[in-house]
Specification:
- There is one protein chain.
- It contains three helices and no strands.
- It is mainly alpha-helical.
């Protein structure tokens, strides 16, 4: 049931493009938040980072939804 969460917590990519050599920390997909602190708000770098961070947010929401559904299935005995 926790597999979807582990994928988001420890992998910077999706299940179809795993990065076996990644040695990042927790929630590697959110590492781009550092760019927001370093760069000016009207730069292309920030705009690209924001786009990627929205995708990562959606990826995290999907993982949470999948894990919740799996836990509910386990709890209800399905």
């Amino acid at each position: 049931a926790l597999r979807p969460l582990h994928r988001v917590l420890y992998s910077p990519s999706d299940p179809f493009h795993p990065d076996g050599g990644w040695e990042g920390g927790l929630l590697p997909g959110l590492a781009l938040t550092a760019i927001l602190a370093e760069s000016g708000p009207d730069t292309d770098r920030v705009r690209f980072a924001l786009t990627t961070l929205v995708r990562e947010r959606n990826r995290l929401h999907e993982a949470l939804d999948l894990a919740a559904a799996r836990f509910e299935a386990i709890r209800s005995g399905r």
